[in-house]
Amino acid sequence: MFSIDFDSDLIVDVKLVDIDLLxxxxxxxxxxxxxxxxxxxxxxxxxxxxxxxxxxxSMLIIDGHHRYFxxxxxxxxxxxxxxxxxxxxxxxxxxxxPLPKEHIIEIGxxxxxxxxxxxxxxxxxxxxxxxxxxxxxxxxxKIKTNEIKI
Length: 150
What we know:
Blueprint (H helix, E strand, L loop, with lengths): L10 E8 L11 H12 L4 E5 L1 E4 L5 E3 L1 H9 L4 E7 L6 E2 L8 H10 L11 E4 L4 E4 L6 E5 L6
Parallel strand pairs: 3-5
Antiparallel strand pairs: 1-5, 2-9, 3-4, 6-7, 7-8
């Protein structure tokens, strides 16, 4: 169950994915990533985390760059991911000056990252008839913190 109504075929899968397959397109705010990593590490056995939203074809990270980099820094080999069909018109890349999705994918593939928060991905909610933050498509995952070796 999700807190918004969206196209039923938008989410392709929800699973753990090899973290090295994911492709960021934005830089992060280092302080935010460090704080998140410390917070995750502070839990003795496990932590509940929102999945990273990714394009199922390109593995581009759409939402969750700080989660991705924090998990990577902590040595996680797999990351919780919600795979979506990024080509759907019910996902947009910004409100004022949206970037073409193909351009964002090219940036993710090239490793030439954009500045933090350059995109504002949103998903259309058919119930409210409004665009909502795409993190609302995330699923919650339990990750084991007692296996962190750093």
